[in-house]
Specification:
By secondary structure, the protein is mainly alpha-helical. The chain is about 50% helix and about 10% strand. It folds into two domains: about 100 residues, no CATH class; about 90 residues, no CATH class. The chain contains seven helices and three strands. It has a three-stranded antiparallel beta sheet with strand order 1-2-3.
């Protein structure tokens, strides 16, 4: 936000819970905008903690003391690589720690996210026309998980990656190299992927007997 909206929501003084509600601090790691393929971070994490500044200050001071951290001013998870520091952090977040019940972390595999958008954007309309509600009974999520886990086996790792990359290029408003993936190019990539999958299936060696015969 910028301008008056930012000023209204930005607090110069330390925050403090009151009758108006509880303060929640949130941050993310691994956000690359719309470019969800072939970037440094495969995963996006979003964490939040329901705590105001006045309550958090002594907790942060104690954490720094116990973990022997003096610098930098902003705490980062990468600083907690040693076993001692991990133990300190675990105690802070554990059931008996001062942050118990206050924290939430949401972790996203970006490639799985793209697979789910393939289901949402390319299958949902067709399913709806056939009277199928993909969002009833967890159907959409299970379909996305099947695509994500079985896609690399059916298409090969490289073929599945091409599907993910093409979908990202199609859905992104602006690609890093300025390229634009058209609707025709997207569906052509899917057509080729399915053709490769059929060839892989046909060429797969038979692992069972050619025929069975009951014997007595």
């Amino acid at each position: 936000m910028s301008g008056p909206d930012y000023t209204h929501n930005n607090q110069a003084a330390a925050t403090r819970d009151d009758d108006a509600g509880r303060w929640v601090a949130a941050d993310e790691s691994g956000w690359d905008g719309e470019q969800l393929y072939r970037r440094a971070d495969r995963y996006l994490s979003i964490g939040s903690v329901a705590i105001d500044d006045e309550t958090a200050a002594p907790i942060v001071r104690q954490l720094r003391h116990d973990a022997r951290l003096s610098e930098p001013a902003e705490l980062k998870f990468a600083q907690f690589k040693s076993q001692n520091r991990l133990d300190v952090l675990a105690a802070l977040l554990g059931p008996d720690g001062p942050l118990a019940g206050r924290t939430r972390v949401y972790l996203v595999d970006k490639h799985y996210f793209v697979a789910s958008k393939i289901i949402d954007l390319l299958l949902e309309e067709e399913a709806h026309a056939r009277g199928i509600n993909l969002y009833e009974g967890d159907v959409a999520r299970r379909a996305a998980w099947t695509l994500f886990t079985s896609g690399p086996r059916a298409l090969g790792a490289e073929g599945f990656d091409r599907i993910i990359a093409t979908m990202v290029g199609f859905a992104s408003a602006r690609n890093r190299d300025g390229s634009v993936v058209s609707v025709d190019a997207l569906f052509e990539e899917f057509r080729l992927a399915f053709a490769r999958a059929r060839r892989r299936d046909v060429s797969r060696p038979c692992c069972g007997p050619a025929s069975t015969r009951r014997t007595t």
